[in-house]
Specification:
single chain, about 120 residues, alpha/beta, Barwin-like endoglucanases, 6-stranded mixed β-barrel, EC 4.2.2.-, cell wall biogenesis/degradation, Endolytic peptidoglycan transglycosylase RlpA, signal
Amino acid sequence: MAFRFRTLATGLLMGLGLVSATGEAYARGCGGASWYAAHSKTASGERMNPSRLTAAHRSLAFGTKLKVTNMRNGSSVVVRVNDRGPFVRGRVLDLSKGAASSLNMVSSGTAKVCYEVVAER
């Protein structure tokens, strides 16, 4: 019975886009993104380096790698989650200035992005 339930649950989660075909959990999402260029410590304990390709996400594990795509221009970049945030309604990521530059969104300050996990820690 437990095997049947697990198989059914995995199938349902696959249909919702929450697990891969191998049953591994992954995340994806779309929403607003902004960027920041501080030199303070991040929630993971490392010092923020604005030129590195990093991001803040509310709940994904530190070290998770995300492919982020700017929906306005199609630019993509892979970033590593090392901080928590954003804490602004409608935003899903806060990106380092380096990542924002790769997405061509520095001058606008924000962009609509979609992201998906490419490697979990």
